[in-house]
Amino acid sequence: MNNCAIEVHNLTTTYGGAPVLWDIDFELPAGQIIGIIGPNGSGKTTLLKTIMGLLEPSSGYVKIFDQDLEKMRERIAYVPQRESVDWDFPATVEDVVMMGRYRKANLFRRSNRTDLAVVAESIEKVGLTPFKKRQIAQLSGGQQQRVFIARALAQKADVYLMDEPFVGVDAATENAILSLLEEMKAQGKTVLIIHHDLQTVSDYFDYLVLLNTRLIAKGTPQEVLTKENLSNAYGGQLTLLAKVANLIKENEFPIREKDMDL
Amino acid sequence: MNEFWIILTASIVAINAALLGCFLLLRKMSMVGDAISHAVLPGIVVAYYLSGDKTSILLLIGATLTGVLTSYLITFLSKKARIQGDASIGITYTLLFAVGMIMISTWLKGNVDIDMECVLYGDVALINLDKIIIDGNLYIGPRAFYVEIIAFAIIIVSLLWGYKGFKILSFNEDYAQSLGIRTGRWHYFLMTLVSLTTVVAFEVVGAILVVGFLIVPPATAQLLTNRLPFMLIVAALVGIVSAIGGYYLAVWLNVSITAAMIVVSGLIFSLAFIYVRFRERLGNKSVTEHLPI
Ligand SMILES: Nc1ncnc2c1ncn2[C@@H]1O[C@H](COP(=O)(O)OP(=O)(O)OP(=O)(O)O)[C@@H](O)[C@H]1O
Ligand SMILES: [Mg+2]
User: Fold this and answer.
1) Which residues pair with B228 in a beta bridge?
2) Which of A64, A244, B23, B36 has the highest Cβ tally under 10 A?
3) Which of A182-186, B75-79, B148-152, B283-287 comes out lowest in average pLDDT?
């Protein structure tokens, strides 16, 4: 792949016991919206954390734009799962988004005017300007999710890794986040998203990675969303999945309609 | 005059503990503070044994390092040996504390300066026995006061200097690491400050009740504030008020000063809790109005 944003090579990760990721190998194209799908416990979060260097792989490596992660920290932003933090933390929306401007090098300096401007702009982009002074505990789940996205936007990165940004958000917010993603894509950014709703994957993503400890399939939604791949990933357990696969086939992958302006 | 120095010294103990306790509380690590405050005992004993002085620099450094070692062992047991978090805390600190007890009862038998009583309960009323007198007769306060002031200065400078680091470590450690921030170093930096706080506080308030100063004022402050700087300030204020109120309560009832201070901080916490509940009941429940973007 000549325009590769993330290269994952023979990656194996464990939490001490049996591998949670086993020999994962793929390259992800830059400038696209990429989905990671797979059943609960299939290692999606683990994959994101390993890519971000939060977990040490037991073998294999990750390259970002053909470089080591440490050199690329400035260009890659992480949106953790919303439940991974305590939202009772005494901070406002602005305080949290400002964390997107923190760097190893500026930790001992006060935030400057650029930081403030970037933070305001990022909050505006996710539509939280009226809430910027509000404590984060007093936000709805969807608003909290947008705080996390704003914080990543404030990093001004090129690659964004998001862990289930659509969980617990209503349709309006989901659409708003989607148009934000499209905007980012238009600016050449790469966005990698863990996603759960199989009904929407072919609409949302240009490229898919299907995971269940091992890599089951990768490629365009057409290539990945076959009955065979899905049952390999999810097992025979869900007849629903077969239905989804059929549904997708019948509709022959309708192109997402871009007329849902909000 | 004695009264003045006791209240002042206890207030600084309370401020030091309150400030660091806020970060422990936000990181859900308050019990690590408890563990450290007990586990520094062998460090104190060894250093005292070697230096023969209760307030030597060697003692402070030795005991502080024991505290840091404690936090390292706790992390090691829970991460590497995969032992449940609270169990690793229990294993580590009871073991170290027991070793310290044995050391005291063998090496320091009959010692007037350090015994179990003093280690466990401290005695703020006695700090005036160890005075600093300059120019032959000018009394400038108890030694413990100066030790606390130095610790206070170290803590204030560290918190001001590392505020952003401690804040992001407390809110979202994974995210901080994803930014390339060395969260491990920040963690041990915080643990060093916590150890220092408990070590210098032990002769004033004892190993057991210092935990109260680490936890109760920050918990009260968290109820009442919604930004970190305010939380730190309110926690420190609650600590000061507990120290002053506790002193007079103790004098009035003729009971242990430290215990009275913790009781007062508990009362303040209860009042804050009732106030917050009351306000919630009365106030606007729908703080999170929905706003489509
Ligand atoms: N900290 C941990 N220690 C030990 N095992 C873990 C830890 N975190 C996750 N696991 C295990 O690793 C496996 C993969 O977890 P992971 O969180 O990556 O799954 P996921 O695909 O993100 O699941 P979900 O869809 O539920 O978010 C699971 O079996 C889980 O039990
Ligand atoms: Mg997950």
Assistant:
1) none
2) B36
3) B283-287
Residue nearest to atom 13 of ligand 1 (CA): A41
Residues 6+ apart with CB under 8 A from A139: A87, A93, A131, A147, B288
- Locate tokens 């949670």: which residue? A20
pLDDT for position B206: 84
| Position A201 pLDDT exceeds 70 | yes
Quickly tell me which residue has 């600190």 as its tokens: B93
B172 part of contact set with chain A, CB < 8 Å: yes
CA–CA separation, A6 and A4 (whole Å): 6
User: Per-residue pLDDT tens for A221-244?
Assistant: 999 998 889 888 888 665 665 566
The pLDDT, as a whole number, for residue B158 is: 97
Cα distance between residue B82 and residue A180, in whole Å? 41
Q: Right CATH number for B2-205 from 3.40.190.10, 1.10.3720.10, 1.10.3470.10, 2.60.40.10?
A: 1.10.3470.10
Chain B environment of A151 (Cβ under 8 Å): 175
State the Cα–Cα distance between residues A183 and B157, nearest whole angstrom: 44
Enclosing H/E stretch for A19: strand A19-29
- Nearest ligand 1 atom, CA A211: 21
Nearest C-alpha neighbor of B39 from the set B70, B11, B85: B70
* 3 state DSSP class of A61: strand
- Is the pLDDT at A47 greater than 80, yes or no? yes
Give residues (CB < 6 A) around ligand 1.
A 15, 20, 38, 40-46
Question: What is the 8-class DSSP label of residue A226?
Answer: -
Per DSSP, the residues of B236-259 read HHHHHHHHHHHHHHHHHHT--HHH
Residue-level pLDDT at A247: 59
Mutate to test the pocket of ligand 1, among A11, A21, A44 (most ligand atoms within 8 A of CB): A44
By the CB < 8 Å criterion, does A156 face chain B?
no
Task: Specify whether the CB–CB gap between A211 and A42 falls below 8 A.
Answer: yes
Please report, for chain B, the start and end positions of each structural domain, with discontinuous segments joined by +.
2-205
